[in-house]
């Protein structure tokens, strides 16, 4: 059943919640992660978002994360497999008292191109207030069109996010090139 879409004004509490979840993940899967990042709209100061913290885990290998599955599930994470994205392990976490979704965890093997996509998109929004404002408008438009269906909401904004992320990844790659040619 689709979840409703309710955008909330930014709160620094999202950053605190992300930090607590990241500490929990490090403890639950020692050696399983190379890095864990706070991504998505809740990681961008000033940006309205669904109040669901998105995290990106970089794993040495997906097998290592799969080995930590029971420990992660013991913390309340629900294992959803690839969930439509090849090479990803996707987990969700809900508030046990309310059933409301509180967090998403996207895990990819270190070096997977989706890591660069997520980080470049987040960093572009953080660095460019005008891009973040345009994204806020796109999110509001899609939320108005699909208030009762988070899947349709995500699909609605996909072309916008893919375009900005692709541009951000190209920009990041160009800046990191140190060729002598």
From TrEMBL:
Gene3D superfamilies: Beta Polymerase, domain 2 (3.30.460.10). InterPro entries: GrpB/CoaE, NT_sf. The keyword Transferase applies. This is GrpB-like predicted nucleotidyltransferase (UPF0157 family). Keywords: Transferase. It comes from Brevundimonas alba. Pfam families: GrpB. The keyword Transferase applies. One of its GO terms (molecular function) is transferase activity. PANTHER family: GRPB DOMAIN PROTEIN (AFU_ORTHOLOGUE AFUA_1G01530) (PTHR34822), GRPB FAMILY PROTEIN (PTHR34822:SF1).
